[in-house]
Amino acid sequence: MKSSFFRPLLFFFAFAIFTEFNAQKFQGQAKYMSKSKMDLGTWGARMSEGQKKQIAARLKNRLEKTYSLSFNMQESMFLEEQKVDAIAGATDSWGGYFSRGHQYKNVKTNRLVQEQEFYGKRFLVKDDLYKIEWNLGTETKKIGQYTCYKAKAFVPTAELKWYSFSWGDLRKKENNEEGKPEEDLTVVEAWYTPQIPVAQGPAEFWGLPGLILEVSAQNTTLLCTEIVLNPDEKVKIQAPEKGDEITKQAYATTIRTKMADMRNNRRGGRRGR
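Request: output the structure for the sequence above.
Response:
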C-alpha cells in the first residue's frame, strides 16, 4: 500500500529530473539579418533621389548586417558575424552610432554582460537586463516553418542604444542638463514562436514565451533567416571576461564625455588659428 502511494510521486520526480537534464542539453543557433532605414535628416530634403540611392549603396554594409544567436534555455550569445568599421569609436556619418559588442544574456539570473571597445580601450559592461513589459497579441504569421505571434512594447530609447552615440543625442542631453530630461520611448514590435519555448531573442530583446524571430525598433528590423536546433557541434555559451567593468549608464556617460571633449578641443583649435 505504501509503495503504491509513493510510486507515482517517484515517477514525477524522475520525469522532472529528466526534463531538467534535457533542458540543460538543449541548444539552438539562429541567424539574423538586420536592415536599417537611412535617416538623412535635413540633408535629405536637399538631395535628389539619385543622390540618395548612391549614398545607400555606399552604406549598404552599415545598413544591412548579419548576426548569430547561440542560445539554450537560460543563456544566449549574440554577435555580429561580419563586423564593419571595426575600429573602435568610429561613428556613422548619418546619425552616429557605435557597434554593439559581443552580448551575453542570462534570462534566469537577469544578467547582461557585453564587450565594448572605445578608442582602443576595452570595457566589460555588466548590468541587469531591462525587463520589457510585452503586450501579447493574437495576430499570427509564418516565418519559415514557424508560426509566430505578435507582441508590442514601449521601451526607453536609452535602453536600446546605451552603447551608441550621436551628436543629436549629445545636444539634447546638454540642453536638458538643468531641467529634468524627458524619457523617450521607442515602439518595439516583435514576432515570437512558442514552437521554440525559450525566452531568448536578438540584441536587447527577450522575455517572450518563445524565441523572437523578428523584431522592429526605430529604423531597424532584425529577421531570423536560419535556425538549427540541437546542432551536432555545440557552441560554448560563456560570458565575456576581458575589459574594465562598468555599468550601462556609466559607459554611456563615458563615451558622451569623451566625444564632447573632442568636439570642444576641435573648436578651441580652430579659434586658436
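The chain has one domain: 27-36+63-271.
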